[in-house]
């Protein structure tokens, strides 16, 4: 049962209890779920492209660390990401996702493969990915073609930095555009990785180990 269903069931049970005691009959309504609840992005929007690299071996770990691809995030991150995507859609672009929320157990698995804080966050500290507030993204254009951002996702080198300026004007302007729209919608950029964005209001949320079901 996902957390949303849990909340709904809890609410229905509570409502049933109130009705039994007070003979009050109300129409059950869905409760508003907390902004910090973990939800699946695809339950809220069909306008994203998914390329979840850690659910494949096509990543720097050369290992598939997720059983299946899923983009889970806290609800507030989903809301901010949809708002950003709507801005991109108006200009003919869409967000492509490489990674979203990363359960702590997965972080531990990654750390076991590459125990180097330059490449993987130490699970003792946890990253914003473990808090449900970080996304790794790029843009695709109207034809579905990935926008050239100068390096691939998870390229570990100076060329991936926002501060690296020896790139074509076109690439620099695309990185700047991605950054501008994300910042406008409540995210922070990360200097050394053009693809990584943290929701500002999610920086202090707890590290979590929520799992998702694979079909
Ligand atoms: Zn990231």
Automatic annotation (TrEMBL):
Binding-site residues for Zn(2+), renumbered to this chain: 129, 136, 196
Cofactor, how bound (note): Binds 1 zinc ion per subunit.
E.C. numbers: 3.4.13.22
HAMAP family: A_A_dipeptidase
Catalytic residues of the enzyme: 193
InterPro entries named among the record's database cross-references: A_A_dipeptidase, Zn_M74/Hedgehog-like
Entry cofactors: Zn(2+)
UniProt record, GO biological process: cell wall organization; proteolysis
Keyword set, alphabetical order: Cell wall biogenesis/degradation, Dipeptidase, Hydrolase, Metal-binding, Metalloprotease, Protease, Signal, Zinc
Coiled-coil features, chain-numbered ranges: none
Protein name per UniProt: D-alanyl-D-alanine dipeptidase
GO MF, any single term: zinc ion binding
Family indicated by similarity: Belongs to the peptidase M15D family.
Positions of the record's site feature: Transition state stabilizer: 102
Function: Catalyzes hydrolysis of the D-alanyl-D-alanine dipeptide.
Chemical reaction(s) catalysed: D-alanyl-D-alanine + H2O = 2 D-alanine
One Pfam family matching this protein: Peptidase_M15
Signal sequence region: 1-20
Membrane-spanning intervals of the chain: none
């Amino acid at each position: 049962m996902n957390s949303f269903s849990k909340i709904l069931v809890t609410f229905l049970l509570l409502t049933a209890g109130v009705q039994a005691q007070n003979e009050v009959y109300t129409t059950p309504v869905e409760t508003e779920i907390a902004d910090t609840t973990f939800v699946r992005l695809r339950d809220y929007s069909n306008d994203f492209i998914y390329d979840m690299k850690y659910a494949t071996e096509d990543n720097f770990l050369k290992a598939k660390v997720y059983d299946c691809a899923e983009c889970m995030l806290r609800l507030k991150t989903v809301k901010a990401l949809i708002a950003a995507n709507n801005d991109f859609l108006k200009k003919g672009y869409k967000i492509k996702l490489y990674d979203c929320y990363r359960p702590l157990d997965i972080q531990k698995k990654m750390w076991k493969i590459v125990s180097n804080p330059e490449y993987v966050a130490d699970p003792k500290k946890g990253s914003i990915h473990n808090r449900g507030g970080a996304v790794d993204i790029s843009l695709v254009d109207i034809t579905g073609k990935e926008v050239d951002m100068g390096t691939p996702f998870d390229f570990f080198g100076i060329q991936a930095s926002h501060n690296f300026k020896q790139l074509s004007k076109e690439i620099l302007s695309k990185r700047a555009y991605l950054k501008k729209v994300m910042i406008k919608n409540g995210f922070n950029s990360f200097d050394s990785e053009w693809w990584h964005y943290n929701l500002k209001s999610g920086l202090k949320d707890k590290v979590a180990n929520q799992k998702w079901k694979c079909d």
